[in-house]
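May I ask for an example protein's residues together with how it folds?

___
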Amino acid sequence: MTAPAPQRHPLPPGDALAPDPAVGAACPHLSKATKSAPPKPNPRPDRVSLWRYLRLFRADLLSAQPARLYRAWMAEFRTPFFRSFLVNQPDLIDRVLKTEAETFPKSDRVSEGLRPLLGSSVFLTNGAQWKRQRRIIDPAFEGGRLRDSYPSIHAAAEATVARLATLDPRQPVEIEAEASHAAADVIFRTLFSIPIEDQLAQEVFHSFRAYQQDQPILNLAAFLRLPHWFPRFHRRRSREHARHIRGLITALTEERQRQIAEGCAPRDLATKIMTTPDPQTGQCFSADEMVDQVAIFFLAGHETSASALAWALYLLACAPDWQDAVAEEARGADLSEFAAMSSLRISRDVFREALRLYPPVPMMVREAAEPRTFRNRKVPKGAQIVLSPWHLHRHERLWSDPDGFDPGRWQTENGKSCQRSAYMPFSAGPRVCTGAGFAMVEGVLMLSMILRQFRISPVPGKTPVPAAHLTVRSKNGIWLQLTRREP
């Protein structure tokens, strides 16, 4: 048995998103892209056996896909277990994520593998339960909360630079590990007002690292529609890591509940979320519900931010002109002040470009709750709708030089058009990531502060190979050489 190749669909006539040859014109003093395209996984052949496809998918969903998905508007996959449609056409993506979002709830197939850790967190739920959770969570990220949290983000960035300064400059640095440390520090400082050096924070961090390395993105339940009572066959080590992490998070939330009761709790994100009642019912999260939410805040805020920062640093290491531009921009700003963020345009465009080339969450899966028609093709109830930022962000019919690293594209008509219609590193619509604004500030600030102090370069013979597990990481780490810049 073979897995059928996805069916291609022609470009709609009069497409308004045709690539713009003027990409890069906004920054003529900078090289348009790196001399060679940044690393990209080799796609699989068009036709492979179904069982080989499932093995490839379980190991790395990026290299398990055929090359034609970088040009297709839609592709259909049929297996004995389910039908799925990968959608790249912008107006269809809008239907799934925005205009008909309730008709396409989050699929529980992918979430099965994460339930031991995330329980019923906002990342996994649908319907009324999800709406209630968002009503409680969203106020913590609205208004001036980002400005209030900025000192904690800046303190974590300062700690990151200081830690990097203690490393032996003669030795290469595995920057993914450093980025993970930095991102975890931001989470602990903004969520619980403790630095990562705190003993409990250290234990949570290292447990999450072990979980990330051991947890496959899919398990058997992703392919088979299993009854609720049927065993899920989660890996034993993954279950143990998840149980340990939840125990540690429980200790953090119980301590915060005590502080809230005694009136001495810090005014951070955890306090805000734990004391915000649902405006419709007047009820706050229970202790168990809060553990679920903290788990996804840490997983989403730590894993995704670390992935984006590490790839952004690698891209800049391969593009000295852009690297120097970021450093020069950072030296001209008072980064201790939140107002400086508005002046970091180059750093912001670099980070935006890293999110385009290496979106931390490469694919999202929704499920058709009702029959629909996409491109004159019947989409039955229960079909899986795959939305792939990885393929959409590199789509050959939408982006100019889709595989090239070019932060200047965001100041061009093509870049601006695609940003509106073909760019979704944080999802879109009602389920857009609540921490998207935090992630952009954190990533831009980290880049600016690191590049202001260090010159970075790639390590020969250690080109990273992207692979998707929980997020898009490198199979063998991302190795860079760091040297101090002249004051």
